[in-house]
Write a structure and sequence with these properties.
This protein has 382 residues and is mainly beta. 23% of the residues are buried.
Amino acid sequence: EPEPGARWRRALPWVAGVLALIGIGWLVGVAGQPPHAGVDRGLGARLLAAFGITPPQFSLAVTSEPQGVNIAVDGHDVGRTTPTTLALPVGSHRVTLSMANLGGVSSTVSGARGERRRLDQALWGALDIAAGDERVPLHVAVDGVERGTAPVVVRSLMPGLHQISLSGAGTAPSEHAIEVRVNQTAHFTAMPALSPADGVLDIRATVSGDGGDQPLSGANVWVDGQPRGITPLHLTLSRGPHSVRVNWHGEQPPVQVIDLPGGNQRYATFELGAGTLPPRFVRGGNVDRMPLDRATVISGTIEGVRPADLREMWLHVRTPDGTWRRYPMSTLPAPGGVVGVSVFPVALFDPQGRAAFYLSASTASGDEYFTEIEAATATTAR
């Protein structure tokens, strides 16, 4: 029988081979680990780090506006986004903050052993909107936020796609998408989209009966507060909002406001004979000879709607250039309904001292109610 020492000597090569395989696997695992803090230190440095030997480091707190941007150090993605803190080897490093396909910003940062450094970068973009035709004023909204009249510059925008909305008197509303890049200004020219001056409004009425709803002839029609005929009625009107009201044997359904596009046709249909009383929306306040040197309050009362059911109420006023603006109305409970109040914007009177306006109200269930479009007048013309 072989001596114990001889058995160990024969087994030693096998043991050494197994240990070598384990060691190789361990080294491969260490070499394959991601670089510490995103910095590629090379295989030798990683092997030293595996034994707890690390080079001198400093910490870098990285923040940005907006947050959540990608970070690369010396050209290597660290796999993190702002805000974060990195541990970097002592010395100088190139730190790049970027947003996918939208550009980035690079900075050189140096640090000594144990030092704490900070890097804060702004990556906003901007949008320069020029006026394509200064004879036609265009109102600009970016992502639904009013920005004034072109030309206008919008700063501190999140890099990416943004929606530009254009509107103006005598023009068709238009939408445009534009990309804004990191630390760059995108340029856009606002051109008026001219549309025909008139459109067609078809006004109809129906009456409920035993056989269902039937077309109704003979209901009196008012457009923008003026009598225009009886149903059915076919009218050519200027583009823009128009109020329509009908009356039949004393029954008066809610007023409708139709925004009529130029060169197009819209329909206003009224249902009568249902036997139910709809909410009644009445404008209050004196709109004749409004003083220009003190506040004038406009009110609106909607009867048949509970305060808890009313969502909002607005005052809509046409500007001298033909566009419309709306102003929120403060609402209060009233006997049998809700009353809304707002100060009339006398700055919107035209040179003849007139301003068209109407009120709107909406409920939590999605129903909308309007007053007729009428004209307020100032005490003196400008």
